[in-house]
Amino acid sequence: MSVNGKKVLHMDRNSYYGGESASITPLEDLYKRFNLPGTPPESMGRGRDWNVDLIPKFLMANGQLVKMLLYTEVTRYLDFKVIEGSFVYKGGKIYKVPSTEAEALASSLMGLFEKRRFRKFLVYVANFDENDPRTFEGVDPKKTTMRDVYKKFDLGQDVIDFTGHALALYRTDDYLDQPCQETINRIKLYSESLARYGKSPYLYPLYGLGELPQGFARLSAIYGGTYMLNKPIEEIVIENGKVVGVKSEGEVARCKQLICDPSYVSDRVTKVGQVIRVICILSHPIKNTNDANSCQIIIPQNQVNRKSDIYVCMISSAHNVAAQGKYIAIASTTVETADPEKEIKPALDLLEPIEQKFVSISDLFAPTDPGTESQIFISRTYDATTHFETTCDDINLNSVAKLYHGQSPHLL
């Protein structure tokens, strides 16, 4: 917004950047935040070696957030590493997600005939062009459901599970009865992101996600934006139904528009659920991931008799977020019962032995109105997913997509 000439004042009640999605350093501060007794053991190295994300997420290499970072040139302040692998859970084991024709034929996730059918499906998706009816092969992208497309290629339930949840990144199976165009485009995005760097479609910034808001802060400052940390918000000032300012420490900062997260406007949001996150410190890579120093694992809902998926993402000292030889794995899912910790157990079982756990259960909020009248625009709370695509859907990025010309972020 600063880059496009708007006058921006960013106020934050916290003493650090990033709000609820901050990276916490040193490690001692994480212990305090979760009210754990004592201090981290010496085996965990220096506290300053740690930058632990409270809400970890990866960036899709060809996704909306990367396009936004490139368009705004925030990438000049960031360096990224490719996540080493993307895995899916089936029958108590984890398998690499096949997303190319070659990987589909080599995967132990499917039988021989299933592999051939899945390969045909991937070729169809790769050739699909919503502007060219010749690529539809009898499918109407705006009417044919995804369930019917799977039927057309005779794909079994396990293949449907990992395609919908590990490639298209849906959290539930509601998409099956929706028109197929959105799902096909999601799978194309996954494949295109994978093609950019090879190992996986995901990127992660060195030193943790806390670098993202700091990068935006630096860029905003160059274009005249002002940042104020440690600034208590006392009142949102409204006149004739429209926001006109924000009161802090007895002073009012006048404004025409206000953008904030749900915690600042509890009277304008509604609770839509809960999410459980468990941050785990490990001294080993996750089993059956080829000793990857970073990865994502998706546990599709049907594999554990749930309505929503369970996510695991892991990063390590290779990303300058942990002490040498240490790994940070975070499991998350949408809460469905009165016993959230039991719900997340399938993910934690994959991580054993766990050196230290930090458990949080957070409420999810959504705005009760779009904000066009009041000019108060409220974001949704971060969901359980381990990627930024759903978060970016909260923002209109059409202009960004148009201005993006296929650049790449800095990779190390």
What does this structure look like?
The chain has 412 residues and is α+β, with helices and mostly antiparallel strands. The two termini are 29 Å apart. The strands form six sheets. Strands 7-6-15-16-17-14-18 form a seven-stranded mixed sheet, sandwiched between helices. It has a three-stranded antiparallel sheet with strand order 4-8-5. Mean pLDDT is 90; it is low at 397-405. The relative contact order is 0.20. The protein has helices at 27-33, 64-72, 101-106, 112-127, 146-152, 157-167, 181-197, 211-222, 340-343, 345-351, 389-392, 398-403, and strands at 9-11, 23-24, 52-53, 59-60, 80-82, 86-90, 93-96, 202-205, 226-228, 235-239, 242-248, 251-254, 258-260, 269-282, 295-299, 310-316, 327-334, 356-367, 376-378.
